Amino acid sequence: MDETYEGDISMKKVNVCILQSDGTNCDNELFYAFKKFGGNPQFVHVNQLRSKTKSLKDFHILALPGGFSYGDDVASGKIWAIELISFLRNEIEKFKQRGGIIVGICNGFQVLIRTGLLPFGEMGKMSATLAPNSSGHFECRWIKLKAEKNKCIFLKGKYDIGYFAVNHGEGKFFSTPQVIKKVEDEDLVVFRYVDENGNSTQQYPQNPNGSLNAIAGVTDPSGRILGLMPHPEKFIDSTQYPNWRREKISKPHGVFIFEDMINYVKENK
């Protein structure tokens, strides 16, 4: 799939860098999602950025997919985060300064948290963590999310409750009371886990990992970085949802994230 786009980097298109490392395994789904909604995705291995054979200056969106980067040795996403801080800090900072958008899903969210890019945009300063699930085991199923009023500048629509897939063992958003309060006060919470009545919840299984304040996704103060544990790229076709025949969902719930990102870049590049 990536061969179609190899070398096809045009600033007239919404160019998406889908960053890969050893162990990423949701990159194909992410590629498909961006392509479906008008993006121009390209797979880029982290070593290509380190060797400077590829550069973030050619892209509008940097996307970190799910999976198990470097086997999640030590802690989920930690080794990849250290690699980005140690070797690509300047390039990522320049990408941010140029107005680039960064999104991290599941393992990508774990990486963004461990780099410090989330929740406060301070690369090299880790303020929160994604700890092992309170259930004590890997969670692989569908949950409900609701979107909150937040600072994310590229999610413009008004969204209600949606179904999303989760696949993780370390997804518990956790930090000090002071950090949680700052995240809340600055409107950095983008998504929360909710119960059957649409209320945010700490109860299992609706909250699959025990995240404090039911936090499932956050942005940074600039609103240009988004991280979330659930997988929007796994519900962009109606048939991806297990009850698609019975519930007759008119628009897959992951669609708005990719549509809004692509449209924002088209309107502002």
Could you explain the architecture of this structure?
The structure is a single chain. The chain is of the alpha/beta class. Helix content is 26%, strand content 22%. It is built from 7 helices and 11 strands. It is globular and about 50 Å long. The protein starts with 13 loop residues before the first strand and ends with a helix. Residues 1-9 have low confidence and may be disordered.
Task: Give a quick set of tags describing it.
269 residues; alpha/beta; Rossmann fold; two-stranded antiparallel sheet; 7 helices; 26% helix; 22% strand; disordered N terminus
List strands and helices in order, with pairings.
Layout: E1 14-20, H1 27-36, E2 39-45, H2 46-50, E3 61-64, H3 78-97, E4 101-105, H4 107-115, E5 129-131, E6 139-147, E7 161-168, E8 172-174, H5 177-185, E9 189-193, E10 215-219, E11 225-228, H6 244-247, H7 255-268
Parallel strand pairs: 1-2, 1-3, 3-4, 4-11
Antiparallel strand pairs: 5-8, 6-7, 6-9, 9-10, 10-11
